[in-house]
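Task: encode each sequence below as structure tokens.

Item 1
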Amino acid sequence: MDFSSDTSAPAHPKVLEALARANAGNAPSYGADPETAALEARLKTLFETEALSVWPVASGTAANALALACFCPPTSAVLCHREAHIERDERGAPEFFTGGGKLRLLDGPDGRIPAETLAAELAGMDPSFVHETPPALLSLTNLTECGTVYSASEISALSRLAHASGLSVHLDGARFGNALARLGASPAELSWKAGVDVLSFGLTKTGAIGCELIILFGEATARFAELQARAKRAGHMPAKLRYLSAQANALLEGGLWLELAGHANAQATRLAAGLAGLPGAQLRHPVEGNEVFVTLPDSMARTLSDAGAKFYPWPEGGYRFVCSWATPDAAVEQFLSIVYPASR
């Protein structure tokens, strides 16, 4: 009953098999290998565009920080939600990698930035005012840090506002697969077709050992040389890049990543349905992916913890439960069999 995080899950067996295949013989270094070339070709098909460049890294923090640094100068700012991962959980990495870029925080229910909030922020900025830190970039998160989704139309509306004010758009897609599985949209519809310039495409939470992809779209591909230079300087240009690319290829093959994300979402839906009917329990956010945020009586939380269930108290209150590609039916059933007697 480990609902602590989807990063607690093991790597998918097909990832391990792909690594073994990639380990056969020598291959060129620093991304000049066949696995990385195959990954770029696969992504161009998946995202329905030839205007795409990709750089694999081992962590989501590296993906976000490097991506933001390519678009935000040290004298500018990134607009993001107050609960965004780049604000809450990355220990100042975006500020460090940009050389001093500032995060400007916006509010909105359930982890989403409303279009009217962004419009008001943009209308109030004055780049000519020397005492102000003007934004260069809008960063969105999908799934959000509250487990909710932005639809393609919502991203499009926010991107139009950002682009009209001269801002680029970054999407933190640590759980991009979970958002797609929920919406039934295509990767293109939820990224570049909706105005996203750079995507942090997460696969670690969907079965990789550690693999995140920084993907540049359209005119932003002109920044690929800068991205590589920043990756090299920051220590994110491993000589044997083929092992990162092999993980991505294994998960993207045949749509496995979406299948795994869909399983995680379904388990979270089951968990939420059971919790929502319990006395004293209240869902804090809509369950639209693989995360459940819920208020529980302290006695119930203790009962679950004593029975071996793993989950986290959340800073905003209540508790977070996360399902993964490896969450079995038995874990959800055992969890609910413990909770229901405890509630009577």
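Item 2
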Amino acid sequence: MKAKGNEMRETAAERRDLKPIIAFCLYDFGNSAFTTIIVTFVFATYFATGIAADATTGAAQWSFAMAVAGLIIAFFSPIFGAIADQTGQRKRWVAAISMVCVVATALLWYARPDPSDVTWALTFAVIGTVGFEIAMLFYNALLPTVASPAMLGRISGWAWGTGYAGGFISLAIALFVLVQADPAPFGLDKSSAEHVRATALLVAIWFAIFATPLFLFVKEQEAPGIPMGLAICQGLKQLTVSLGNIRNHANVFRFLLAAMIYTDGVHTVFALGGVYAGVTFGMDTAEIIVLGIGLNVTAGLGAFAFAWIDDRIGSKRTIVISLIALLVTSAAVVAAPDKTTFFIAALIMSTFFGPVQSASRTLMARLAPPAMRGEMFGLFALSGKVTAFLGPAVVGYVTLTTGNTRLGMASVLVFLLIGLVLLRGVKEVTPAAVQSEPR
């Protein structure tokens, strides 16, 4: 009888948490338009084939720009995470830094199809990417606020799946309303690529709208007000202490090291996929958007399917399965002899993008001490970016020196393999041992 009562109370608690969960997922739904349209499938391709002097140079310049963004994110992520733990105001940081991404994205509208606009385009692409990633570290740290320990994997997976749905829908709108519309809507001038540049405005508006529910419905535990200057000093001090006491958190840092390597590989494939398709197979913007729609559908299905698997078999096993699958399918993508084979291999490969990223977020939430979640997610963001410059930089360097994008993308397989090997030593914490934050 008592067990039944507990079950009823748990169900009621889950009902009360429905709005925060939906709001948490909608933020992913909104911000995914940035990575999908700007970083991967539309603007990146437009930059390489429309703004830069030539496609090969453009692909290399974009890769190097993403490398610069990775270095900036690697430096600031743990600092911001430690500060967030001191202030207890992660949601405010999400709002402020998301706005940086939104504004920078909107300014990409002014990037004309002219080599003289290369600096403008890359500058605001870097600022937008930095804003996106820093905001994500605070957003990820909110996961235990909206999810019970037993549902961390499912809610994380649902959010990733919802994010891919957002990417799919925003790409469809970009394709049919802006890129392929004839005549172009709103008086857009196709001769100056305004129908493509307008996708940046679509992303900015989309992100702003769907991020808003997070700030309305997700409630953080009230924390004592700490002056920002003191919070920065205490945050940096705590970060220094944590890094100096790595042995006390050896399991967490072992996971962060593995994540640092394999996340670099995953992000590099995703960030440069559109450019690779355009340069290697001559896909135009419309074809790449269709590819992006397909990738987001399969990735979303993968994230939703593995959400239950994550809670059932554990986050570590989910990551291992996904990495092995990514190794095999990524090799098929790089070796694809024609556009059709590439398209099919890419669709299969994308099925495992969501699970590896979602399960990594869940595992971090399970391993991180509650009082240090912001700091640990800052280090988690650092682990994904401290070498993030290396993947795009290697791809860019190999592409420039060999003139062959296939050889550059093939380097990604090494990152996935090393990360998989390092992950073997990580010990996973059971869901029952995870402490959820007060709601």
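Check on item 2: The chain has one domain: 22-433. Residues 55-87 form the longest helix (33 residues).
End of task.
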